[in-house]
Design brief:
This protein has 14 helices and 23 strands. It is α+β, with helices and mostly antiparallel strands and about 425 residues long. It is elongated, with a radius of gyration of 22 Å. About 50% of the residues are buried. The structure holds ligand EPZ.
Length: about 425
């Protein structure tokens, strides 16, 4: 019998190729900054294509806590910000780092903002110094006490800001604040991710004047106010990558729909290089998984480089390739948390500083494994789909932060997967062997 705690878990019977088609939801990493960006206007904003995720619910709870009226219906969120309370509650910010994205909008709309310092998480320290340095350059005074950051600025003004690293969050936070600041702001070495572009398009649809999003130099000309808008967010490229790599690792044939192939270029290139057949459609990608996976070397980089959010998935894939692969993680300092769990399934992975050296093995075997963060959880799920026998996966609270209906979607592709929300040991008699 399992420990007597009620523990949500997935049971996956592996070893079956995935077949069929699956639809991606809207992008989590576009939804979060855009929902925070809605605070920049006093009018009604309607955002469509919002995925039903735990992180989205946390952001909506945060918006309500700071004074916004929030209505949610069928993937559409309607936000009206009346009297804003420029201080975010600890319990919500502690749950999700992206909560820090409300700092810029609050500061520029209210002239002040207070936020708990968002601690680090499983994948790294994740400081916010670049966000704060940018606000200071725009005229804010920043102070810290009792674990809270306080920013004050009667009126933010434009500034030239050079980001030491092309931080996605800092680019988004500063772009939002600069939209209502007095004068022009230039963000140099800005992040170029599609989600940054989506936020800029959202803000421009509300009357902002942002140029150059998607390049390393963004110019924002501040305006007096933004209007309400209706906006639909982009599809989730990381979710798309997850189903594509799942098809590859099970030697399956899957059509992933509601995708912008351009956003996935480095991922599709590595899928092709590792021996899979990839066919790009207008808003879809079809993949036929290879019978003989070849090793690949991967170096994660800011967009348009290979996304750090996809490296764990490729670690699972490379675990079954015929040779040695090296994955170099350059964005976060602690993003190989999945390695120990994949070793339980028989993978041969050793970590040497920022590199994971993966010796391919003929098969993986089902095991009890624990997800330690969102993308590690997805990597364990796809390894389990390819493994011989039964796997038992806990730590689902991480997976549910970023994947909507993951078990249903895998099941629709023929996977044998079940979600249990009790402490029954459904894998009893579980030996890891079929
Ligand atoms: C965004 O995080 C994504 N999250 C992450 O996705 C993604 O991994 C990351 O960008 C990189 O692509 C959301 O969009 C909500 P960063 P963010 O600021 O904005 C350092 C997922 O799985 N840095 O670009 O927090 C930082 O420590 C999540 O969906 C500073 O040093 O990432 C890191 O090493 C995980 N100072 C690097 O920059 C700062 O002030 C990149 O971080 C800010 C960042």
């Amino acid at each position: 019998m399992l420990r007597s705690v009620n523990m949500k878990h997935l049971v996956i019977w592996g070893g079956r190729p995935l077949e069929g088609k699956v639809q991606c939801d809207g992008a989590k990493n576009a939804a979060l900054p855009i929902l925070a960006g809605a605070l920049l206007t006093g009018d009604i904003t309607t955002v469509s294509g919002v995925p039903n995720l735990a992180d989205v619910q946390t952001m909506l709870a945060l918006l309500s806590a700071i004074g916004a009226d929030v209505e949610e219906y069928n993937g559409q969120v309607r936000i009206k910000t009346n009297k804003l309370v420029p201080s975010a509650p600890y319990d919500l910010v502690r749950k999700m780092r992206a909560s820090f994205l409300v700092m810029g909008p609050l500061l520029v709309r209210c002239g002040k903002a207070s936020m708990p310092l968002p601690g680090g998480c499983a994948i790294g320290q994740r400081p916010v110094d670049l966000h704060l340095k940018g606000f200071e350059a725009m005229g804010a005074t920043i102070s810290m006490d009792n674990g809270y950051i306080h920013a004050r600025a009667p009126r933010l003004h434009g500034a030239e800001i050079y980001l030491d690293v092309p931080s996605v969050g800092a680019t988004e936070n500063l772009m939002g604040a600069a939209s209502l600041a007095y004068g022009d702001t230039i963000i140099e070495n800005a992040a170029q991710e599609p989600e940054v572009v989506d936020l800029a398009n959202f803000l421009n649809s509300a009357g902002a004047q942002i140029k150059g999003a998607g390049t390393s130099r963004i110019r924002i000309t501040g305006v007096r106010e933004l209007a309400g808008t209706n906006y639909t967010i982009i599809p989730d490229r990381i979710e798309a990558a997850t189903y594509l790599v799942a098809a590859a690792i099970t030697a399956g044939k899957v059509l992933v729909e509601n995708v912008i192939p351009l956003h996935l270029k480095p991922v599709l290139a590595k899928l092709h290089e590792s021996g899979n057949t990839v066919i790009e459609g207008y808003k879809s990608v079809e993949i036929q998984g290879g019978q003989r996976l070849t090793p690949v070397n991967i170096k994660t980089l800011p967009y348009p480089g290979f996304p750090t959010d996809v490296q764990a998935l490729f670690a699972s894939l490379c675990s079954l390739s015929q040779g040695t692969s090296v994955i170099s993680e350059t964005i976060f300092e602690n993003r190989f948390g999945y390695a120990e769990e994949l070793r339980r399934m028989g993978a041969s992975i050793r970590i040497e500083g920022p590199n994971a050296i993966i010796e391919g093995v003929p098969t993986l075997t089902g095991a009890r494994v624990q997800a330690g963060d969102l993308r590690a959880g997805a990597a364990l799920c796809i390894a389990a789909l390819a493994a011989q026998g039964i796997s038992y996966i806990t730590g689902l609270e991480h997976i549910e932060r970023g994947y909507a209906r993951l078990p249903d979607k895998f099941r629709s592709l023929g996977a044998r997967i079940s979600l249990f929300d009790d402490d029954m040991d459904h894998a009893s008699g579980f030996t890891g062997r079929g």
